[in-house]
Amino acid sequence: MNDNDVNVSGLVSRLGLNRRQFLAATTGMAAAAAVTSPSALASDTTGRTLVPSGKRGIILYTVRDAVSRDPNTTDLASGFKEVLEELARIGYKQIEFAGYTQSVNAPGGRNLNNVEGATLLRSWLDANGLEAEGNHGSIPGTITDTTLAAFDTACEIANILGLGHIGTGSDPTGSAYVADWALAAERWNILGQRAASHGLKLYTHNHDIAYSFLLDSGPLDDLGRPTRSSGVRRLEYFLANTDPAYVFLEMDIYWAHVAQYKHHTYIAPDGTSVQDIFDPAAVVAAQTTRFPLFHAKDGRRDDTVPNGYVMTPFGEGDIDYATFFTEVGAKGYHNPMYEQDTAPSGTDPGQSLEFAQLSYDNLAALRG
After folding, report:
1. Which of 87, 158, 259, 364 is spaced 20 to 30 Å from 19 by Cα?
2. Could you read off the pLDDT of 219-233 as tens digits, one per residue?
């Protein structure tokens, strides 16, 4: 590691984790009981498949155009039933939903976000040997009897589908301020425990801004808010202040690398500028079983665009996935879902499923 890399033990110390918290965060389920050190894991997996066949997944947002397509207008796979059949044919074994709506003309009708719809979806999953892992749904922004009842209903749908996880595609809060993240952590602890009562793990999916630096110190502005940072990133704080038994994360590996490119410097309490290069693999390795899900999204480096990367099919970009999957530990525990926001095309209606095939082949070929 160079001086800019995140040191795992130093990170744990900086976040204020004690030995009990660290062990709780890195123990997880039986499949991850032996969390291997990066050096040992690299030796153990040399030349071997890094993503087992049963762990190769896709979030349906990648093929959202196919899911929403009217089957009466095309011979291409359309709607949940046909798209699930096609993804199973390609070889995928895991599915992450991005909502439960499709074309009104597809089998089951438009809205499957109910007991009957979920039962139908589950029958198609089972018929194709697919396992649903999660859904990007809506997590209550406040805790009331009404919002908890709605959350319970979402958990009921998740159980019918056989999900292991229930989550959202949004950050716990969009704020940069520590007070708002403290409130979000409190809310997520409540919801995480509620999800666990249904046998589910609650997770948040994040883009690059969640890995930017938290405003938690320094002079206050006119509204009494801090203007500088101690160097803790927003999600680092969230991890340290949520219960590892109830609150989990889905790292989007592409956006984590965008964060590495963009969010590298903070203004310390004394006004000095401090560089701290984000290391996605080290953050995962420090509490590896807090990250049961990944978005395996690839990108090509391009310094001419604001994010520093342009999305590509998996395996066609410059993100070093072989090293990442080797270094995060708990081999065989994580569930990587291929995602590509740009897979649908306005001119090539078959592109998203073609990219799903290409990406599956590259995911299956990944060795370490």
Report:
1. 259
2. 999 999 999 999 999
